[in-house]
Structure to design on (214 residues):
């Protein structure tokens, strides 16, 4: 059988931390991603996402997630890309960590976002998976800046950012799910990044970097 990385090189990418494995989500893994999201990500009625996708009905959740994964793959180019990395812990799919960029060759800036199923929250896994992609961005992609954002009330996300050395980078108003949200932006650089006490293991970077035009 043909190895998927032979026709879509980012499938070769694997980031490994002491407890987690991060890799692009393949079609056969979408059901596990949908099941993890359906098990609960946030408190009902208070979605931490600009598009409250996790509050879609059970009937709509799967098609919406699948379309998003396919859209991100289909639209990837050196000018704009988003890597959607599934998170596996002890062989179980527990969430997603994305890293993306626009005009990376010029701006050397990435942005990140993530979600984690409720049963996996509160154990430091969110910090570990964010640290993984920031390490990857600085040490392998050679980014100068990593940015993120969260609703101003989302203390869990902002706490992860602070613990990794992110600095506040302004507040803006945005329409999230049809309602106004105060959104806190944050940024971190190689100088301010509080590195973890472990070393990230990376496989498949070269074909991924070539595919992204790096």
């Amino acid at each position: 059988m043909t190895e998927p990385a032979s026709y879509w090189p980012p499938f070769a990418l694997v980031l490994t931390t002491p407890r987690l494995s991060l890799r692009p989500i393949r079609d056969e893994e979408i059901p596990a991603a949908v099941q993890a999201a359906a098990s609960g990500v946030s408190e009902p009625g208070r979605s931490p996402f600009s598009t409250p996708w996790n509050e879609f009905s059970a009937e709509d959740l799967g098609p919406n997630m699948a379309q998003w994964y396919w859209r991100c793959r289909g639209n990837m180019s050196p000018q704009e890309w988003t890597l959607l990395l599934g998170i596996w812990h002890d062989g179980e799919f527990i969430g997603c960590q994305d890293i993306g960029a626009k005009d990376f060759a010029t701006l050397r800036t990435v942005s990140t976002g993530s979600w984690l199923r409720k049963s996996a929250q509160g154990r430091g896994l969110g910090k570990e998976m964010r640290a993984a992609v920031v390490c990857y961005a600085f040490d392998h992609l050679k980014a100068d800046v990593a940015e993120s954002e969260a609703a101003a009330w989302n203390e869990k996300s902002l706490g992860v950012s602070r613990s990794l050395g992110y600095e506040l980078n302004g507040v803006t108003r945005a329409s999230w799910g049809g309602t106004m949200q105060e959104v806190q932006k944050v940024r971190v650089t190689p100088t301010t990044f509080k590195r973890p006490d472990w070393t990230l293991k990376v496989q498949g970077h070269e074909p991924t970097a070539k595919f992204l035009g790096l």
Q: What stands out?
A: The domain at 4-144+196-211 is CATH 3.40.630.30 (Aminopeptidase).
